[in-house]
Amino acid sequence: MAGMVRTLEDPPPSHVRKPPLNHRSAVAPTPSHRPVRQSFAALRNSGYRAQFVTYFLAMMADNIEHVISYWVMFRKFHSPALAGFAVLSHWLPFLLFSVASGALADRFDPRRLIQCGMGLFILASLGWGYFFLTDTIEVWHAMVLLLIHGCAGVLWATPGQVLLYDIVGAADLPSGVRLNATSRYLGILVGPAVGSAILLAFGPAYGILLNTIFYLPAVLWLVNAPYGPRFRKGAAPPKRAVRGFADIVQAIREIVGQSTIVSMTVLAGCASFFIGNAYNAQLPGFAENLGHGDPGLAYSMLLAADAAGGLLAGVVLERMALLKPAPRTAIVLALLWCCALIGFAASDNYQVALALLFAAGFLELTFNAMAQTLVQLNAHEEIRGRTLGLFKMASLGLRAFSAVTVGLIGSLIGVHWSLALSALVLVAITCVLLWVGQGPAGSDGSCNQVGQSWRKRGGPPAEQLGCTSSRRGTWRSRNENPSMRSTTARS
Length: 491
Hints:
- By secondary structure, this protein is an all-alpha fold.
- It contains 21 helices and no strands.
């Protein structure tokens, strides 16, 4: 009986033949052996749980600062121009410096960059507190503090995504990105409520000084968090110089042959440019036009519906482990998001508008998180920061222009028409992206190469990455062989 028991260390019997390395079973696992997707997979990682909590606290603090500082600026200056500058100063730094921030994350430890971002957030809050206490704030003081706050967000966003990959890895990255997006929506929901309570209890000066405490957990956790370049397995990629705005052009050149990254960046950029979150600023006008009871309460309900939809999307999709990342799926979800916003803009019934805005929040989180996941998974390690910086530049930086497409044009033709027309333009763009992506994935074997590369690194198979690019598998060889790189450039 003892002879019939074979341990895992024993060699297999002679009649059991091992398949050759190039055998089909060695390339792709059979369905019965594929890992089952788990609900809330990233939260099973203790490091990610710490990141999730500190991310939520920092996001809540960000929104608390908005509530208090915007209220004081309104009471002090009554300046629409300053309110407009507050929006531009929040998004323009993402447009100008996201790729540079990603380049810094490629070269240096992203933990330290995030700590610098948190430090700038704290500096901005301390600055607001000083001017509120002394009652000496002027317009130019407010403009400087708003710019510091915007630059802090840039140092947090892209390095934070690079660090997220180090924490959860490729297999749990879709869950991590989606849960981070859920945490952001939770911060947007909770932050204004907490900010209003702090404002009433402590006043603007002491309230915004108290707000600095919420940034500290992220700073302290990142001091010794075991993630970043020092803890990555394998040989470290060569470090590249940070070249400022030249990195934007170089990043575009390096991703131009990777169809998944290009399509998701274009999708996120167009959604940000034409719609973004500009319709949130127009919700008071929608609430008044819908004529449902008290306009203030109606506005609050519309704002809460959009945020609650995104929050529910994160919980439901994580709980049921639905929707594996795929470019076509992300584009279809963006198309449905546009349809929900068109319906909202055309609706004259408050209950229908509320439901459509809830659906829009649900779909926005879903397609944005999926697009970012696909970019993360397909980005090469040597340029992950720059690639994510380019995506952030498109998905966040271009929101500065949605104030024109929805807001400024809305002042001329009405916000209902401006939102509907902007969404219709985005519908046309998403249809073009669907048509362009009709080609068969992996017909030239590139997805097989990517799949083998990801399996070596513990990631999902290429089918889950939405791989469609024939150049993905040859990125390393081009960059290691100067003659091949020059040939590719000439072609």
